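Exercise 7. Predict the joint structure of the components listed below.
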Amino acid sequence: MLEVTGLSGGYYNHPVLDSVSFTVNKGELFGVLGPNGSGKTTLLSMLSGVLAYEAGTIKIKGKSLKEYSAKQLAQVIAVLPQHSSLAFSYTVKETVSLGRYAHQKGLFHSWSDEDEAVVQKVMEQTGVADFSDYQFEQLSGGERQRVLLAQALAQEPEILFLDEPTNHLDLSYQKGLLDLMKKMAAEYELTVIAIFHDLNLAGLYCDRLMLLEKGQVRVNDIPNEVLKQERIQQVYRTEIEKHPHPAIPRPQMFIVPNQHVSEKEACMINEQFLTVSDEMVQLHAPIPLRTMSSGVTGSGTGWHQTFVNRHVSHTYSCENHVEEMTDYLRSYGFEPSETVGMMTAVFLEAVSYRFLQGENFSIFVVVTAGVGNAVDASLADQHSDAPRPGTINTWVFINGHVAEEAFIHSIVTATEAKVKALHELGVKDPVTNTWATGTSTDSILIAATQRGERLQYAGTITPLGKLISRGVYDCTVEAIERNERVKRT
Amino acid sequence: MLKQSIRTSLTNNKPLAYIIAVSFLLFSMMVGISIGSVSVPFLTLFQILGKEVFHLPIAAQPDTMFTNIVMNIRLPRVLLAGLVGASLAIAGAAFQGLLRNPLADPYTLGVSSGASVGAVATIFLGISIPVLGNFTLPILSVVFSIITIFCVLFFAKKMDRSMKVETIILTGIIFSSFLSAFISLMIALTGEELRQIIGWLMGSVSMRGWSYIVIILPFFVIGSLTLMMNTQELNAMTFGENRAKHLGVNVQRRKLTILIAGSVLTGAAVAVSGTIGFVGLVIPHIIRQIWGPDHKHLLPLSLLIGSGFLILADLVARMVISPSELPIGVITSLIGAPAFALILLKRRRQGER
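Solution:
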């Protein structure tokens, strides 16, 4: 549909683009990214025929851009401008009707039935039909943008250029506009080429992205490939973190604000923050910690400052235990959204905790363990679904900067240490009478301060892994033994 | 909101707009021809017009004095005033759209100054080209106005190859000041022709006769038709030149066409009547307020209303201190300037809301 080869040029003697080449296929949603001054808008000006280029070729539907007359070009290409100022106040209908200019014939541009039909159709599509008699000036920014989109669509283009289409738009308009673009691309094979400042929107909607840097194509590929953390950090010279979208398989980038000095100071989580009562084991950290956990509240990944392991009776049973837990936390003055909450039927005086110092980092492990409900994972299908009390809850606090993968390593390592501890104590699955590997309701929490030493891995023989193995093993053994003792008394 | 609905209903009722505009023009013409130092009764007037202009078989024999007054003095005068008013108003509407500035008018680009230099130089130097005779002044002034617009465009292009409207406006203002200095110089140096020059500069349509109508008519027809063929382009260009290009307008060519057509209209109007201010500024403005900015209707309506307005202004000019006459430019400025100030004030208030 659009084929650009070796495109160079700029304003006067100031070259902006340097040998840019790419192709865009019919029906594709193609995003152009790049920092300010990388040549995005210049490229769009050249593609839409407003700015002359010095070298290279632009081919549209196999024909050179230079062979198109202004009207012919407007029948193929439409542009949605970033903003539009108006000297005079036209009505919405008049504004949209101008989009038909390229299709009108004769010296006095007579208005045909087809023109009217197209204008009505695009006003419906963009949702501006209801205010067709309003003045353009009376509309809000989002409505104006939709009117200009209607004007562009009235050209019945095959290619639509968007220049930062979501600027000045609120969230629902951004989504509405881009959803419409996606629909038009899919249903009418409209080719959409859009400049984006927002990497995340680009990543969400585009089929392909092209990243420009200093007038050159840095990369042109699918979003997941283009939006690589290191690459974006380099090109935009700013610190960002990449993370997958929670609902759909698309990449998202997050900027990381510069932190105040005090926010970088090392922070040590140890027993001084831990309080144990009959009702709960509670740890309140001085700063929010990065967490990965399987608690009742605050599960998954997140940032949490308070950690609660609550004692419940053996007979605790609740339809909606998450809600019950949330209410419980709130009644004790905890903010549920900032708290990882777990439950156990174990007596909390049997809790075992340990602080272990490594080189440049340290960990603090807290375990409560009961094994009345022990299960051999390899023979789990012989168990009924009804969970029985008896739980091993493991907390590992890491005083260091832990990478995403190290969180997962940590879970694996901690689990392996737990299994070994059960094995060492000869804990058996009462149903199958084989060696137990855990209980049916075990929970785990890995929490890191994200300050100080960067810890990339936590496999069993890495420095962090070794510390976790030792800490979890020792604490689990101790917690089980203590629990047995408490139960007997 | 009530105002909005009134505005909307007026905007949407285009046939009514034309009926009003045409009626206004016809009324102005009738009044303009009928009233004067010698009043011509309407019935006699219709008889004369029917007989002399449309060659209808009318039995009644109107007074020859009335016939003479109508056919040789009043009718050409009214027609000339009408043509000048129409030219200035349509050119003003087009320039405002093209330059995206409601304060632009035919004089912004220096065209009228150019025409004035031509005319004043003719009087000052006593030029009389034998073949042209009495037409020396108007013809030279049209020539000067066209030379001026080309000079302005040439320098604008030198400054900025893409010829942005801002550049054109600036160049026009510079040229205007430069040429005004020339006019002042000639006025300062002149002796007995002073009254004649000043009288011409203030504008008048009196004692011109049919020959001046012949001069302005071709320019008027060509200029107006050309502008009418560019109404959609003007609409598109009010969104900005890049936007117009995206919509498929050949911006460079259309811009040049509109500039030249508007300049020819202005030049011709100035040539036959001197400088008459505010018509090109106020009339399109009022039309836009009432019937909306769509150039497809703005241009023809400006033409009709502008024409009627100048006929009435001329009537006032010759009646106020009758039997003596005021320059018509004085009347248009006296009416136009306050009207314009009011419009600006209203716009400002709307902006503050």
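Discussion. The two ends of chain A are 81 Å apart (CA to CA).
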